[in-house]
Design a protein that fits this description.
The structure holds 2 protein chains of 2 kinds. By secondary structure, chain A is mostly helical. Helices cover 75% and strands 0% of the residues of chain A. Chain A contains 13 helices and no strands. In chain A, helix 4 crosses helix 10, helix 8 crosses helix 9 and helix 10 runs antiparallel to helix 13. By secondary structure, chain B is an alpha+beta fold. Chain B has 9 helices and 21 strands. In chain B, strand 12 and strand 13 form a beta hairpin. Chain B starts with a strand and ends in a 13-residue tail after the last strand. The chains are: A mainly alpha, B alpha+beta. At the A-B interface, helix 8 and helix 9 of A face strand 6, helix 2 and helix 4 of B.
């Protein structure tokens, strides 16, 4: 018997169980978002019911969801547009220049990343207020870039480490200067890494609640803050919240589906022996 | 002045001295193979020539121009890497054309040169493929083509065949030698495989811990090793070494129980070592099975540990006088003496085909035919 023949069905069962465990809350939220509140909490749960999209309509068109989504999107996009290029350049440099100083810098970034956000939010608030930037996009984008940067640098570095150094050297001998090596040879190969890093960076900024709660206001309120504010108004709360949660998720889902092709790695196969 | 010259070039990595001050001169059109075991510094020398590493001391000159601190792209060299280093997102054509494009070569000229190289290397049908769609041998040829189209002053090959299977390696070896004959270009080739070195190079440079132990034509190194390192590294199976004491009159070498006659031609050179320990080396190919029961002068007894039957030849792997000993003999057809693992057989050593070495320094004292070590052979 081949090793793993028995392990395969076991693994399949475990993975199926994990998938069910992970997807159940989402399926449940979808169901609650299209049920009336009385049905939403019926015991036993009502699996056959007439779907009602009233709450989805309400959050998108009556409760300024589009406006909050635009705020979230602007902040997330701004964060990605600043932190990913910086992370790409720094990650490349740190993957190629391996010095004690470089390693210290990387460890420093890790420490920054591990710092509890709740301790950082107050200084950020004080600084933003001092420069009168509370409730502005730049304040929130700057905070998100600062929080995301260690992550983007580390992630991009790990992608660059997988690109053989000999490609840089071959390009150098072929006549490229340092920038051309990066831009014409290495960067095209790092595209899947850039897409992945952008996606994670986008998600972190898009889903941020604590900083958004403190640094945004009526002009720049983001989706997570807005949804939290729906709470406690009336009985429709759970259905509205569920519709909001699904509403937050949909753009990200669409984004991921669109970039799915780029998430598939494998361009570097064939660069080296094989 | 040589075409490619390294003068007093030294390199350290941190505290470790990789290349002690080294001199190497390569003539125009020469195919020079740098060979040595892993970690001997051969790839570092190649990277220093390419400009991928900077020397801590010394000068590198190509065609009379000092390039020690010149960028790799301005040295007019091309390099073929061990793992090919092809650009995976570019087609075969784009890979080969890239270097010329970066140098702003006119498009018709790029197309002409790529077409010529593709024809020579038999890559014409693969120009639109990407490296991942090619076999190992094809990728290797693309890497060579990428170097060829540049028409550089010096080609550098860093173990380019080591990722290929044995059959393809032999084929590509021949192809590269043919290519050198065709282009008459200066080529520096790094390998750890002494067979590659022997079959490809006009000249071989044997390296050990960053030092040149001997440089010369392949057969010269095989026939006249300058020291025990080269004697052991060049040639397969490796040269047999026996330790013994020279008789006071210099006529015999007593190696354990065996009395080996010192060839008259070599006696004068060994006069200063009379009564002292020396090493005697002889290639397994020159060893023959002794007729009769052995015990005659010039024969030693070998306890057989294994037999490697290669077809017409058999490699006898055993021990003589406590040292590993090998002999390449014709495969027995039943008429000769029976040789089986576990048995002990006498073998005859034609002493005039052997070499005498100083056991302390490892240097050659004299070759069995009386030729002395030549000063030129013992570089560094």
């Amino acid at each position: 018997m081949r090793p793993g023949t028995l392990a395969q069905p076991v693994l399949l069962v475990l993975l199926t169980a994990f998938a069910v465990f992970s997807l159940t809350p989402i399926v449940w939220a979808v169901m609650i978002s299209v049920k009336d509140p009385i049905d939403a909490f019926a015991i036993p749960p009502k699996l056959i019911f007439e779907p009602n999209f009233r709450y989805h309509y309400e959050i998108w068109f009556e409760r300024r969801f589009l406006e909050f989504f635009a705020n979230s999107a602007a902040i997330a996009a701004g964060t990605v547009l600043i932190s990913v290029p910086i992370g790409t350049l720094a990650g490349y440099a740190l993957s190629r220049i391996r010095t004690p100083a470089g390693r210290s810098f990387l460890m420093g970034l890790l420490v920054v990343r591990m710092f509890p956000h709740v301790l950082l939010v107050i200084p950020f608030f004080v600084m933003a207020r001092a420069v009168e930037m509370i409730d502005t996009y730049p304040a929130m984008i700057a905070a998100m870039v600062a929080l995301n940067q260690p992550f983007t640098v580390w992630l991009m570095r790990s992608f660059f480490l997988e690109i053989p150094r000999e490609l840089d050297e071959a390009a150098t001998i072929d006549g490229c200067n340092a920038w051309q090596v990066f831009a014409r040879v290495v960067l095209p190969l790092a595209r899947p890494g850039i897409v992945v890093t952008s996606l994670f960076s986008l998600l972190l900024a898009y889903n941020e609640f604590l900083f958004a709660l403190v640094l945004t206001g009526t002009e720049t309120k983001t989706l997570p803050v807005a949804i939290a504010e729906y709470g406690g108004e009336d009985l429709n709360y759970w259905s509205l919240s569920a519709a909001g949660a699904i509403g937050i998720m949909l753009p990200i889902l669409a984004f991921m589906l669109f970039f799915q092709r780029h998430l598939v790695r494998g361009l570097t196969i064939g660069a080296v022996k094989g | 002045m040589a075409f490619l010259e390294l003068s007093n070039v030294a390199k350290r990595f941190g505290r470790q001295e990789i290349i002690p001050p080294l001199d190497l001169a390569i003539e125009e059109g020469e195919f020079v193979v740098l060979v040595g075991p892993s970690g001997c510094g051969k790839s570092t020398i190649m990277r220093l020539i390419a400009g991928l590493e900077l020397p801590d001391a010394g000068d590198i000159r190509i065609d009379g121009r000092t390039v020690t601190h010149v960028l790799p792209r301005d040295r007019d060299i091309a390099m073929v890497f061990q793992n090919y280093a092809l650009y995976p997102d570019k087609t075969v054509y784009e890979n080969m054309a890239f270097g010329l494009k970066m140098r702003k070569t006119p498009k018709p000229e790029i197309e002409r040169r790529v077409a010529v190289a593709a024809a020579v290397l038999g890559l014409g049908d693969y120009m639109d493929r990407r490296p991942a769609q090619l076999s190992g041998g094809q990728r290797q040829r693309v890497a060579v083509g990428r170097a060829m189209v540049r028409e550089p002053k010096v080609f550098l090959f860093d173990e380019p065949l080591s990722n290929l299977d044995a059959h393809l390696r032999v084929h590509m070896r021949t192809e590269l030698v043919k290519l050198h004959r065709q282009l008459r270009a200066t080529m520096v080739y790094v390998t750890h495989d002494q067979v590659e070195a022997m079959t490809m190079g006009d000249r071989i440079v044997v390296l050990d811990r960053g030092r040149i132990r001997q440089a010369g034509a392949p057969l010269e190194l095989f026939r006249r090793p300058a020291n025990t390192f080269v004697a052991g590294f060049i040639g397969a199976p490796a040269m047999n070494m026996l330790a013994g004491r020279l008789a006071e009159d210099g006529s015999r070498l007593q190696a354990g129980a065996a009395a080996l006659p010192v060839p008259p031609a070599a006696r004068a050179a060994l006069a200063g070592h009379a009564g002292r320990e020396v090493l005697f080396g002889i290639r397994p190919q020159y060893v023959t099975l002794a007729q009769g029961g052995g015990g005659a002068e010039g024969s030693v007894r070998v306890r057989i540990e294994a037999l490697e039957r290669l077809g017409t030849e058999t490699v006898v792997v055993g021990v003589a006088d406590g040292r590993p000993f090998q002999a390449v003999v014709p495969t027995a057809d039943g008429a000769g003496p029976a040789i089986e693992p576990g048995s002990e057989i006498p073998v005859f050593l034609p002493m005039e085909k052997g070499h005498f070495f100083d056991p302390g320094s490892g240097g050659t004292l004299v070759h069995g035919d009386g030729a002395g070590p030549r000063a030129l052979e013992v570089a560094a």
